Amino acid sequence: MNRTTWLLLSFFILGVIAVSYVYFNREDALMRGLKAERNFAVKDISRLQKIFIAQRDGETTLLEKKGSEWLYNGKYKARPNAMDNLLDAIQRVEIDHIPAKAAIKNIVNNLAGEGIKVELYESGEQPIKTYYIGSGTQDERGVYMIMDGFDQPFVCHIPGWEGNLRYRYNLRGDDWRDKTVFAEDPDNIQSVSIEYPKQKNRSFKLDRKGSSFDIRPFYEITPELRMPYREGSAEAFLIGFESLVAEAFENETPAKDSVRQIVPFSVITVTNKQGKTTQAKLFPIFPESVMSLDPKTGQWVSSDGATVERYFVDHSSGDFMLIQDRVFRKVLRGYDFFYGR
Questions:
Q1: Alpha carbons 216 and 238: distance in angstroms, whole number
Q2: Which residues neighbour 334 within 8 Å (Cβ) at sequence distance 6 or greater?
Q3: Sign of the four-CA dihedral 20, 21, 26, 27
Q4: Under 8 Å between Cβ of 216 and 273
Q5: pLDDT digits over 254-279, tens only?
Q6: Rounded to an integer, what distance in angstroms lies between the CA atom of residue 149 and that of residue 131?
Q7: Low-confidence residues of the chain, pLDDT below 50?
């Protein structure tokens, strides 16, 4: 084989290699694009540091991870249940099917008009994923979603879960916030006082003294009980402060200012060993019937025998909240709870 033949063969081989390189890289880029427009899930949610959610009406939500907790809008602790539901959706969302071509125009219009924008961040300044969530399908088992920068929408769902996953992203304002009123490890509580302004004899102070407790009347005019201490009663009482959660925030209620002028039913103050103090003032919400205070039980009772089911709470955080009596009843104890047989 002469020199000319070798040169022609070499050029031919190089040409085949160049064409193959361009072709396969084009195919690879195309496959990467197809994968990117379909890959909504973040499998390792432990790497997420920030989630930004924007509504079409301009309301935005910023969720940032600080240590083991998530903060809402840089100020408030996010509600754990809301975060668990959101992170579960982010981790497990999958494509259920591709919509029919005839429906795509309406779906895209829906995403443009009603879509929720979601940006997911790890440690960098740029999001690792940005997508839009539209309305639910007619059977409410899926939602329309589209990845930012692509044209193809999909119907997505969470495998094994029946429901519209849009709701997990679509919380607003205080719905993202943690509604905890008290949350203290019983062993970390240094003191508790409960004042009942209209029942002074039931009011008390509890102080931890090493491995024991000092329990005495809140008011100096109240005589001390001369009965044996009920073993374990203080520990049982303190366990009640481990998790006490409000039903809702009522910061926008018109009654807030007038309620705060009323003498509260009770004032609960908890101080932990680090010196942090949390206080809640409880105001009973009366039904329409006439109410009176039962001096034996300390409960408000109506003329037909019904008891108060809810209270407004003026919290030391500045929030005005709504709580349920059935949740807080375990800590609404009187001085005599700790004594007797």
A1: 16
A2: 196, 199, 201, 202, 203, 204, 298
A3: positive
A4: no
A5: 989 999 999 999 999 999 999 999 99
A6: 9
A7: 16, 19, 22-24, 26-34, 304
